[in-house]
Amino acid sequence: MMNQQHETTRRHFLTLAASAAAAGALPVVTVRPAEATPAMLSAAIHNVVGEAPLRIGKVKLDIPPLVENGNTVPMMVSVDSPMTAEDHVKSIHVFNEKNPQPNIGNFYLSPLSGRAQVSTRIRLADSQKVTAIAHLSDGSFWQTSVDVVVTLAACTEEVL
Amino acid sequence: MAKALINVPAKARRGDVIEIKALTSHIMETGYRHTAAGEIVPRDIITSFTCRFNGAELFRADFFPAIAANPYLSFFMIANDSGKLDFEWIGDHGFSTTASASLSVVE
Q1: Which of chain B's residues have a Cβ under 8 Å away from the Cβ of A154?
Q2: Which of A5, A44, A65, A150 could form a disulfide bond with A70, CB atoms 3.0-4.6 angstroms apart?
Q3: Which of residues 17-76 of B touch A (CB under 8 A)?
Q4: pLDDT per residue over B55-101, tens digit each?
């Protein structure tokens, strides 16, 4: 039943798309982020990236999807790069959405690093999206984001 | 001086990519917590970490309050030559600690 319904909507969409294309009426597709990012996060990312285009890919962010204790969350960032003098990762910047501060850490690498991979332990104040941005030696910026669910928050709890 | 733990293979073959692990003890107080009386606990974090190989910068990191207490880092380097690795942590209120390790490269 579900399948049939899905089929119908898909076919319906395809028909619509085809007719729109045939009529030459396809609008220009504007790419927007899937979710609105808060101003502080945007500002922090802008500080790193500037006006350069931010592309999706190359970066891999390993964080457990479900975290019990936000006070210490293992995190590993790796970037697909040969790490040669001509083509290497210059830096990796990690951001979050809902901690009191959008920055988590900046990591600066060199061709001598050999492998573009950094691990550390971070704090997450809430269930949120974590973003990693890599700055490559050719000047390009690549990013990835993962969603993490946190059951016990960090950073702002009361000291007894 | 705070205690630091470094894990570097003592020996590596020339050209191998080796993992370097560095851990230091530090409270990493965020500055966003408050006492039961409502007073903010002042920020006290490590703000920067640097690793140098034979004096040249190999790896550097900026820390923010979102780095967990007792900061742990793992990163990599190509073992091209034997030499000395120097580690340095710098933080709020004049915090500073150093550590070193030596690497010997065999053919």
Answers
A1: 68
A2: A150
A3: 17-18, 30, 32-36, 41, 53, 56-69, 71-76
A4: 999 999 999 999 999 999 999 999 999 999 999 999 999 999 999 99
What pLDDT is stored for residue A34 in this prediction? 40
ipTM of the complex: 0.95
3-state DSSP call for residue A47?
helix
User: What percent of chain A is modeled with pLDDT above 90?
Assistant: 64
Task: Please state which CATH number belongs to domain B4-31+44-106.
Answer: 2.60.40.10
| pLDDT (tens digit per residue) in A51-93 | 999 999 999 999 999 999 999 999 999 999 999 999 999 999 9
Contact yes or no for A120 and B72 at CB 8 A: yes
Residues B41 and A71: their CA atoms lie apart, in Å, by: 16
- Rounded CA gap, B70 and B25, in Å? 4
* Cβ separation B68–A73 shorter than 8 A: yes
C-alpha distance across the termini of chain B, in Å: 37
By the 10 Å C-beta count (0-12 exposed, 13-18 middle, 19+ buried), A151 is classed as exposed
Are the Cβ atoms of B76 and A105 closer than 8 angstroms? no
Binned at pLDDT 50, 70 and 90, residue B107 comes out as confident
Residue of B nearest to A110 (CA): B58
Domain A39-152 indexed as CATH 2.60.120.560: no
Identify the pLDDT of residue B38. 86
Alpha-carbon Rg for chain B in angstroms: 16
